[in-house]
Amino acid sequence: MSPGEGFSIQEKYVAADTLYSHIKEDVKKRAVALDEAISQSTQFHDKIDQILESLERIVERLRQPPSISAEVEKIKEQISENKNVSVDMEKLQPLYETLKQRGEEMIARSGGTDKDISAKAVQDKLDQMVFIWENIHTLVEEREAKLLDVMELAEKFWCDHMSLIVTIKDTQDFIRDLEDPGIDPSVVKQQQEAAETIREEIDGLQEELDIVINLGSELIAACGEPDKPIVKKSIHELNSAMGFSK
Fold it and tell me: Which SUPFAM superfamilies does the record associate with it (predicted)?
């Protein structure tokens, strides 16, 4: 072998060795990248499955809430309990945002023959998470709006109910304190005027009673089954106080 041939072979050997080293390094980097991708994918799916389970539990709570009370203080407690869901959602917010970002990055980076499969699996999980997340916010808002409406109705009913009870009692006391019919014409006239005033009072009370009964009927329709008898009993008390029975 001539020196020239030996030098040529040496060059080829060096080139082959360099190429092999590059390939080996590329394979090593590829293996590291694949390991990292697998680790990230595993962590992503584990974390998103965890948050999906948490969100599903919240949705279940919202789909089966306790019946709305007819009592103002209890409705306030229910409003507070409903707000606790928003607090739970705030705690999950950082993880939710992180998973959204990582999922979108994984979809953007995905490649190769299985791109559609892996990307679709991640996208499906993201879509499910976002859908449940938004659904929870909608359910919380709807629940709060309904609770506030019923609370406003309950406040009006119980306030008017109490006021009417007091007015009826005062009117009954006034009637009992009336003197027996007099003989003197001037006294009789005063008694007639007093009687007319009482009749007007009673007519006004009847109008107020009708209003309160209507409010009570609305409250009965809006509150849950356990509280309906409470409102019905209160309406019956008003009717009895007025001398009526239903």
Answer: Spectrin repeat
Q: Could you give the number of structural domains in the chain?
A: 1
Which is nearest to 62 in space by CA: 6, 122, 140, 2? 140
In this structure, is residue 68 part of a structural domain?
yes
Distance between CA atoms of residues 155 and 152, nearest Å: 5
Residue 32 forms part of a structural domain: yes
Mean model confidence pLDDT for the chain: 82
Domain CATH number, residue 81: 1.20.58.60
Cβ atoms of residues 30 and 189 within 8 Å: no
pLDDT in tens, 158-182: 999 999 988 888 877 777 766 555 5
Q: Among 241, 78, 53, which residue's Cα sits nearest to residue 162?
A: 241
Would you say 115 and 38 are in contact if contact means Cβ atoms under 8 Å apart? no
Domain of residue 143, residue span: 3-241
